[in-house]
Design brief:
This protein is α/β, with parallel strands linked by helices and 345 residues long. The protein contains 13 helices and 13 strands. The strands form three sheets. It has a seven-stranded mixed β-sheet with strand order 2-8-7-6-5-3-4, sandwiched between helices. A four-stranded antiparallel β-sheet has the order 9-10-13-12, with helices on one face. The longest helix is centred in the C-terminal third of the chain and has 16 residues. The structure holds pyridoxal-5'-phosphate.
Length: 345
């Protein structure tokens, strides 16, 4: 039985062409700074995002952590949306490793309105943490792959600058936001001091993220990457996969978005399943399961027995994500399996 995997856009395998690019990669020792493929990738990312420099790192978690580290000192506080990845899924690394506190604002589907930031800067006396950094996530993972409204991003970044705060964008899926809106990655990135992007999600590369920003901050970030154990030697082998993905797999994210909409249309027809949020903007969808159908975990099991992998994200919620390794036919097959597994017995 062929398994169709909709758990995450991280499950993709490198394509034959990507593997060829990786096999042929020129390499050096990136810790010594002379891996030509890593240098090329970093330059390409910096150019795409309109930043002076970029740093290739093993994961998005490390990229966000280094982002926080270059902006903040112990005793500083960052402002972020309550459901964001950095706050939720990264073990509070900002606190463990950086000595930084997080103050959350409640968004709608991960979206914060600019006026929510009013009065969020703490007074500058010794009772308080120092408000230092604003982070946003685009697209927003737990918000259902939501694209941040561009004019909000602009206004929030302007507010932050006006208060002398730094800004960091968790752009693990910035490529999806760019394709969904037609607003180039560099246009989004312009509003932030540092931007983290990912190659191993929608783009389908096996490993890595990058942190882009001003030259001095990225040089500082290189030191942090080393102490975190993120210095990789002949990293050009994996960086070549990332470079290949940047050139060849960005535009096709539109197919993932179309497949997600197709999936959503089908799920709307299945009794007992309810999309939440309703609108699908990019490649992720979440739905609630009526208690009459049992728990999410039980449904996940029934789906798995039929060859469909999805992720339970709560007692009654399931997530599905489209990506490079599922096509429209897989989407239709998934809908057939879902309808069977959700049918009353
Ligand atoms: C996956 C993800 C990360 C972390 O990336 P890893 O490579 O898994 O560490 C950060 N931010 C967002 C929004 C993500 O979806």
């Amino acid at each position: 039985m062929r398994i169709i995997d909709f758990r995450s856009d991280t499950v993709t395998r490198p394509t034959p062409e990507m593997r060829q690019a990786m096999a042929a990669a020129r390499v050096g020792d990136d810790v010594l700074g002379d891996d030509p493929t890593v240098l090329e990738l970093q330059q390409r990312v910096a150019d795409l995002l309109g930043k002076e420099a970029a740093l290739y790192v093993p994961s998005g978690t490390m990229s966000n952590l280094i982002g926080v580290r270059v902006h903040c000192r112990p005793g500083d506080e960052l402002l972020c949306e309550a459901g964001c990845h950095l706050y939720h899924y990264e073990q509070s690394g900002y606190a463990q490793i950086c000595g930084v506190a997080a103050r959350t604002l409640e968004g709608r589907c991960g979206v914060l309105r600019p006026e929510q930031f009013e009065a969020m800067v703490r007074p500058g006396d010794a009772h308080y943490a120092r408000t230092r950094l604003v982070t946003l996530e685009n697209t927003h993972n737990r918000g259902g792959g939501r694209v941040q409204p561009y004019e909000y991003v602009e206004a929030i970044a302007r507010w932050a600058r006006g208060h002398g705060l730094r800004t960091h964008l968790d752009g693990a899926r910035l490529w999806n936001a760019a394709v969904a809106t037609g607003i180039a990655p560099g246009e989004w990135a312009r509003h932030f001091d540092t931007v983290s992007v990912c190659f191993s999600k929608g783009l389908g590369a096996p490993v890595g993220s990058a942190l882009a920003g001003p030259r001095e901050l990225i040089a500082e970030g290189l030191r942090h990457r080393k102490v975190l154990g993120g210095g990789m030697r002949q990293a050009g082998v994996v960086a070549a996969g990332a470079l290949y993905a940047l050139e060849h797999h960005r535009d096709r994210l539109a197919d993932d978005h179309a497949n997600a909409r197709r999936l959503a249309d089908g799920i709307r027809q299945i009794d007992g399943l309810a999309l939440a949020p309703e609108e699908i903007e990019t490649n992720m969808l979440f739905f609630r399961i009526d208690a009459a159908l049992g728990t999410a975990a039980a449904l996940v099991d029934r789906l798995q027995q039929r060859g469909l992998l999805v992720l339970a994200t709560g007692p009654q919620t399931i997530r599905m994500v489209t990506h490079l390794d599922v096509d429209a036919a897989d989407t239709d097959r998934a809908l057939t399996i879902l309808a069977e597994a959700a049918a009353p017995t």
